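User: C-alpha cells for this one?
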Amino acid sequence: MLLMLTGCQSLLSKPEERVTTTNSHQALTLDNHVCIYDQPPKEFDNNCDMRFWISEWVRANSTSWSKRKAALKKLGNSQYDIVRTYILTLPNDTPYQDRLRAQLALDAISEEFTASAQQILNTVAADQNNQLMQLESALVVLEKENTKRGEALEKLRGDTASLRKKLEELLKIEAALMDKNRSTQQ
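Assistant:
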C-alpha cells in the first residue's frame, strides 16, 4: 500500500506537495522521501528505499519458514540485520518465539527511527504482529489449561475405576456375609 501511495503521489503531484493521511493518534505526512533513520548507522543500506523493504516483505511472505529460518541464521546483530530479521519473521507461519524475539529486537532500536518510519511500521506491521502474538499466546495458555484439565479428568476416571472395583469387592463381601448369615439362621 505504501508503495502504491508513493508511486501514485509521484505521478499525480508536484514534488513539493505532500499527502497527509490521518490516524486516530496523529497525522502522518508522507512525501517521496521516507527514511528509516535520519542518520543511518554505518552499513545500513536502503535506508530511504521503501520499495526495497516492501519487496523484502513480499519475498519473505512467499518463502517457506524453513528457508527463512536458514536465512535468519546468517544474519547478525547489526541494526540492518535486525530490521531484516523482523521482516523475515512477519509471515504468519513464523513460530511464536522467533516472532517475539524479532519484535523485541526491533522494539529496542525503533526509537531511533524517524517518526514517519515508526508510524508506518506500527500501522503496517507491528500492530498486527503484536495482535497475532497475543492471540497465539492466549491459545498456548488455553492449550495448557485444557491439557491440565484433561490430565485431571483422566486421573478422576482412574480414581472412579478404582473406587468402582473396591465397591464391587465390598458388595461381594457383603453378599457372602449375607449368605453366611442366612445359612446360620436356618
